[in-house]
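Batch job 17 of 40 flagged for manual review because the log was empty.
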Amino acid sequence: MMKKQQMDIQVAACPITDKVVIKGISEDVCSDDIELYFEDKRTCPHGGDVLNVELFDNRKSAIIQFQDRSGMCKFNVCPRT
């Protein structure tokens, strides 16, 4: 067991978020396609109402912001409240 004076511990709160990152997107996919995919219960039963989609320059990844962050629990990235 380490002695207290030997440790330099820093503690910070984890941010509460309503966003997820997706990777591996085809270059021909646009933000509207992603939004429709995640809002459609037939194509994505774990989805929810999307507030915003931000595609990165390389167009192979994006950040999806959901209107209700509790829906993110379906993706096993449940934010703590």
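Reviewer: the log was empty due to a logging misconfiguration, but the result itself is present. The longest helix spans residues 31-39. Unflagging and moving on to job 18.
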